[in-house]
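Posting this for the archive.
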Amino acid sequence: MIKYEQIVREIKEAIKESQTTLPDWVISKLEDIKENETKKAKEQIETILENIRIAKEEKKPICQDTGVPIFYVKHGTQLSLDFSLSKALKEVTQKATQEIPLRPSIVSPWERKNTGDNTGDKIPIINYEPVEGSKLEIIVFPKGAGSENMSKQKMFNPGQKGEVIEWIIDSVQEAGPKPCPPIFLGIGIGGTFDYSTQLSKEALIELPQQSQGKIRELEREILEKVNSLEIGPMGLGGKTTALDVKIKTAHCHTASLPVAINIQCWANRKAKRVFEE
């Protein structure tokens, strides 16, 4: 039986992991681009890698913006919990904020009053997906404001398909240095207005998984064109503006073509825990 206290204990460690370390594949991408970069860009990448090293050694957040707490939950349909998972995730967010510690960043949307513990109305954000089996999977995905503020959505007409790539590239160019490049670019195509944005964020979480066929070709084309902008690391110029692009798609209404882009900074932070009965 999965216990309330177990969730709080292990997810607090997952939050700490997501805030103080990066997945190995992210670090590898940064190291891979370093040697082929311009002098100024190489200096920025070296600084980023040093920042990652210090954060891991000292167990301190990689960035001062510890983000909005977001959880992605896959709940086995054969699994029964005798407690509120939402309550547990709210409590663990409060504990992590105090004990790691994390910067309190959550405010009321209009009055801008800070809650002080990174929880609030509908915060943390919890996405539930029912799946077969009896396991419980929880992904911790903190999202900072610098990159989130540069994200976009547009409802294209089906006949405007040829304009989609240009809109994506223009959006990245407009964002410039604000999302702290080199970035990761999650793209959602299809669904509805709201679902396309959900797909774009899920695309970031699925990295480094690769798409297949024509979608993979489209990802490569977008990555090449984004990097040709030469915004470079931290916006100071260079060959690498984006480290990777991931697209998620869904079927959509015959009369619409929803497209969303969710930009992530170089610190693509996440951690996962799996619980079994």
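The chain has a mean pLDDT of 98. The chain is about 40% helix and 20% strand.
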